[in-house]
Amino acid sequence: MARELSDEIVVVGGGVVGLTTGVVLAESGRRVRVWTRDAVEATTSAVAGALWWPYRIEPVALARTWALRSLEVYEELAAGSEPAGVRMVEGVMGDTRLDEVDGWLAGRVPGLRAATAGEGPGTGIRARLPLVDMPAHLPWLRDRFVAAGGVVETRTVTSLT
Ligand SMILES: Cc1cc2nc3c(=O)[nH]c(=O)nc-3n(C[C@H](O)[C@H](O)[C@H](O)COP(=O)(O)OP(=O)(O)OC[C@H]3O[C@@H](n4cnc5c(N)ncnc54)[C@H](O)[C@@H]3O)c2cc1C
Question: What is the C-alpha end-to-end distance of the chain, expressed in Å?
């Protein structure tokens, strides 16, 4: 959640969503503070398996835009030399049928196909997807935010008013 105070933006939360939002805003020239109750290492983001795959996210139309943009960014980070903790991995995602995958997603993920019987247990799909090493990615995001002029403050918000 971002709240504007005069020309300064306050982002509440310093997990992957808050820090990523902070990076985008700070690198576009805004003055930004991230208020976080917890150190980044103590957030839910720090323990995420962090495989990129849109899963039950709403509203669907917006989530599709977010997902495609983040896929593009993670692919760039995986191909680049930044120590962002992002790499592309090929593997089998279990319990997913190819005909359940939305068309917009199937058309964008390179090499997406049904897994064969020898490739994994039960029904699955094989794909090459971004996988993020969060203990590396979160400090990298925080450093990138600070380098863009952002400020991280340990602060617990009790009311948005
Ligand atoms: C075991 C596990 C595996 C996962 N695997 C995946 C996966 O493979 N792929 C995937 O996409 N997602 C996965 N997730 C989900 C993913 O971790 C979350 O969707 C994501 O981390 C949410 O990020 P966030 O920044 O919104 O929240 P969080 O990381 O929870 O951060 C919340 C932030 O808000 C701050 N905060 C909270 N309350 C206050 C307050 N009152 N005042 C100030 N600050 C406050 C916290 O201190 C923290 O900084 C997984 C989650 C778990 C637990």
Answer: 13
Which structural domains are found in the chain, ordered by start?
1-48+133-161 (3.40.50.720), 51-132 (no CATH)
> Model pTM?
0.93
The CB of 49 under 6 Å from ligand 1? The reply is: yes
| Contact criterion met (CB below 8 Å) for 123 and 94 | yes
Q: Is 44 in the pocket of ligand 1 (CB under 6 A)?
A: yes
For ligand 1, the distance from its centroid to the CA atom of residue 15, given in whole angstroms, is 6
User: What per-residue confidence (pLDDT) applies to 120?
Assistant: 74
Residue 32 β-bridge partners: 9
Q: Indicate if ligand 1 lies below 6 Å from the C-beta of 20.
A: no
Mention every residue, 6+ apart, whose C-beta is less than 8 A from residue 33: 8, 9, 10, 11, 150, 151, 152, 153
